[in-house]
Every structure is written in C-alpha cells, then in structure tokens.
Amino acid sequence: MKQPCPVCTGPLDPSGLSRREFLNRFGMGVGGMALSHLLGGTAAAEEDIHATGLPHFAPKAKRVIYLFQSGGPSQLDLFDYKPLLNKLNGEELPDSVRQGQRLTGMSAHQASLPMAGSIFKFAQHGQSGAWMSDLLPHTARIADELCIVKSLYTEAINHDPAITFLQTGSQLSGRPCFGSWMNYGLGSDNENLPAFVVMLTKNKGGQPLYARLWGSGFLPSEFQGVQFRPGKDAVLYLSNPDGVDRESRRMLLNRLEELHRHQMDVSQDASLNARILQYEMAFRMQASVPEVTDLSDEPDSVFEMYGPDSRDPGTYAANCLMARRLAERGVKFIQLYHRDWDHHGGLPGGIRSECGQTDQASAALVADLKQRGMLDDTLVIWGGEFGRTNYSQGQLTATDYGRDHHPRCFTVWMAGGGVNAGTSYGATDDFGYNVAENGVHVHDFHATLLHLMGIDHERLTYKFQGRRYRLTDVHGKLVPGLMA
After folding, report:
1. Coil/strand/helix, residue 146
2. Collapsing DSSP states into helix, strand and coil, what is residue 280?
3. Are the C-beta atoms of 78 and 121 separated by less than 8 Å?
4. C-alpha triplet 214, 76, 369: angle, nearest 5°
5. Which residues are CB-contacts of 469 (< 8 A; sequence separation ≥ 6)?
6. Does 367 reside within a domain?
C-alpha cells in the first residue's frame, strides 16, 4: 500500500507526474530550482510583475533628484544645533544617554567617550527659522524651500549595509534600488533617455560605491540605473566603433532582434526581451546623450549660479547642473553620489572641504528648478546613510575632533515635489544622541517618498522566488508631517 509523503502530501510513486512536477515536489522544490537553472529561463523562477494601475493616485512629484552624500555627514555640525554639547564639551557621555547602544569597532575600545560640541557657529534662517551652521551659507538662503528631517534613523552602523539599506530597503545586497523600483513602477517620460540616471563626483576618495547600489536586483535589467561619466563618452560603449555608421548599426540590431525573438519562442526566456529593449535604448541614446551632456548652450549666469566647478565636467556642481538638464528632458530618477563625508578624525577640515564642494550647487539646483517652474513637481533629496556621534572619536582638542558612525539619528532635507516646505520635522534629545520626537525609520522615509510619486508602497510589489517583495519590505508607514 502506498504511503503518503510528509513533504509533498502526495504519493511517493511519481508515476503520472511530469518531470518538473516531480522535481518541484521532491526536496521542497530544490529539484525544481535546479531544473530551472539548467533550463536557463527566468519564466520558471516564479517572477511575476505586479505594477499595474500606476500611479495609484495623483502624484505630487513627477521626478526625483537624489543628492546622496556618501559617508555620513555630521548632522551636529550642519543642522542639529545642540548648545548643551558645547557647554559639556570634553565631559564623558553619560550612560543614561547612551543606554547601552552598540558602538562601531573604531570607538568601542576607547577609554573615554568625550562629548564634542561643534566648533561652527549656528544661526536661524528664513521665516521658518531653520537652524544651520555657517558651513552652509547657500543652503541657508533656500531654508524656506526645505523640509528638514532631523529624526531619521536606521538599523545599520557600518557603511556598506547602511548605504545598501537607504538605496534598496535591505541591508543585504541583491534587492532592487529605489530608482529601479521607480523605473519599474512608473516608466519613462522620454523614450530617448534612460528613466534612471546615475552620476558620481569624479576624483573622490572615501568609501567605495558599487554598481549594485543602482542595480535592478531581481527586477528585469532594463530597470537598472545608467551611469553617466564626464568626458566625450558619457556612457561606456555607447559610440559605434570606427567603420560602423548609424545605418549599419540599425541593420545589425534588426537582425539581432529577430534572433532574440526566435529564441524567446523556443525558451520563453523573458530576459531576452529586456536585452532587446536595452539595445534599442542604446541606439536612441547615441543621438540624445551627446545633446544633453553638451553644456555649451548654458548661459554664463547659470554657471555663476552653480559655482565655478560647474564648468568642470564630473564635479558635483557640474553633475547638479546636468541633473537639471536631465529633469527638463523627462528623466524620472536622477541620483548623484558624492563621497568623502566619513570624518572619523580631522572633521573640521574635512567637512569644510565637502561643504565647499556641495553647498552652492545643491542650493543652486533647488533655486534653478524653482525659477523654471519645475520645483513643484520635482522632489529633491539631500542626505547620507547615517549620522555622526555626539562624542569624539580619537583625541578631542579645541580645534579638532572626529565623529564615529551613528545610526540612531541623522538629518536629511527635501525640497519641492509636495513636501512640507519651511519646516523642521522631528527632534533629537539635548545631547543629539537619540530621537526624542517623531522618529522616521528608513522604511517610513521610503513609503513617504513613494507616496509623493503617486505610489502606494504596499501595492508596488514584485514576485520573486515565491514571495512578493517591495521597497519597504514588510513594514513602513507614511509620515504625513513631511507632506504638504
């Protein structure tokens, strides 16, 4: 008599089952996964697009420009004014404030954790009275355009998991990034340019940045970010080789598409369609990219607004100007990465340098969008992956100190695109160590950003390996105080 199988609740005798059905039942599906891998098709991997009916409601923003400050800018020296730290400068961080919270390996073994007040002067700006240090004179002038979030917090204490978390909603690599989710859900407003463009400030040290941070993860590859570089060839391998003209390239792509579609009929491999789309986009970009990256039509007044570095391709200022040009042409998600905010020591000199490179151009981008009537429907975001500690890493002197990583609270700002302008949201305690009011988790932040783009974060999902994934993973809530 046949005995029931406790794993698949079916008979042990595989007769009557197809090879795939038997392998899927056997070993809780491990055999089926192996067969799927051998077949080389993605259709058998249970991937399923679930992004219909988007946007879910009327969006406040049509596009995003994310100015990512990699390394963790010190909120205590830029936005989060804490006079008590200046008063208690050099005194030991009280255990009642730290509350046993973990430290990184870089300061966990320090004999002392002396609190470090900022050496920079703070003042209130605009009708909103936003606090900013004298490191940000240009940003101070647009204070009333900003929604400054002082109570963001994360779960990661080191760079790689923290930046991965901010970009993908998970500390582990392999998930689609924010820009890819946007591209997947909303598509493009310009068929001749990618919907998602990435630019890195050239010649910068600091923590490494990986292409997976703007990768599509398990989403089809056409949704990944396209990196623009300074110089003649803004996109690698886009130009035709010597001896190949545009007509020849068109003929080659036509024949290649025929071969791919024939293979799709045989293998049902959905990735081939993504490959066709990418080839076609690259062909169109051969004409559109040189036009958008040619800044010769910008008047001198624009370069003066963004600062002298804006004439030097690949600098942060030039990338900010390029971001505005891309936004004008319908690019949906534009991400700038600027490194070297990781100031474990020598913070005063280091942060002066970074603000000198970024302050004017960041403010100019917001002002430029506003004067062109684009700020209302463009969401601009500025911030890093975590904050810095209120105590000094290493020796504290009257003119020098360092700050370690601090995930418990940090500051970002947003402008345009339906945000609650002229406000500061949330607060930290008097020591600048813990969130004291209106904490905003990374998932809450993502949920709110998606909402501004007309997306319900719980409904934008993608089925992969039997589970529906989303940017906010399994939690996250809207933060109404951030929205107008």
Report:
1. strand
2. helix
3. no
4. 50
5. 175, 218, 461, 462, 463
6. yes
pLDDT confidence band for 424 (50 / 70 / 90): very high
Of 369, 421, 390, the residue nearest 149 (C-alpha)? 421
In a domain, 375, yes or no: yes
What gap in Å lies between CA 289 and CA 314, rounded to an integer? 15
69-90 pLDDT, tens digit each: 999 999 999 999 999 999 999 9
Residue 223 lies in a domain: yes
Sequence-distant (≥ 6) Cβ neighbours of residue 21 within 8 angstroms: none
**Enclosing H/E stretch for 406:** strand 405-406
The Cα–Cα gap between 348 and 400 comes to 6
Residues 6 or more apart from 481 whose CB is under 8 A from it?
420, 423, 425, 438
Residues 6+ apart with CB under 8 A from 183: 195, 196, 216, 223, 332, 333
Do 469 and 385 belong together in one domain?
A: yes
Nearest to 447 by CA among 408, 477, 426, 427: 477
Angle at 275 between CA 453 and CA 44, to 5 degrees: 85
Residue 151 lies in a domain: yes
Q: What is d(CA 235, CA 261) in angstroms, rounded to the nearest whole number?
A: 27
0.90 cut: is pTM over it?
Answer: no
Rounded distance between C-alpha atoms, residue 199 and residue 70, angstroms: 13
CA-derived radius of gyration, the chain:
25
Residue 277 identity (one-letter amino acid): L
Tell me how far CA of residue 144 lies from CA of 126, 212, 422, 465, in angstroms: 6, 35, 4, 46
| 155 and 24 belong to one structural domain | no
Q: State how many domains the chain has.
A: 2
467 pLDDT above the threshold of 80: yes
Residue 248's alpha-carbon distances to 48, 91, 188, 255, 363, in angstroms, are 36, 72, 27, 11, 45
| Residue 94, domain extent | 52-239+297-482
Q: Are strands 423-425 and 410-415 parallel, antiparallel or unpaired?
A: unpaired
Instruction: Tell me which residue of 453, 389, 396 sits closest to 419, measured CA to CA.
Output: 453
CB 433 within 8 A of CB 468: no
Model confidence over 125-181: pLDDT tens digits? 999 999 999 999 999 999 999 999 999 999 999 999 999 999 999 999 999 999 999
Residues 58 and 26 in one domain: no
Write the CA distances from 172 to 176, 258, 260, 387, 427, integer angstroms.
11, 38, 33, 20, 29
Q: Are residues 308 and 421 in the same domain?
A: yes
> What are residue 291's DSSP bridge partners?
none
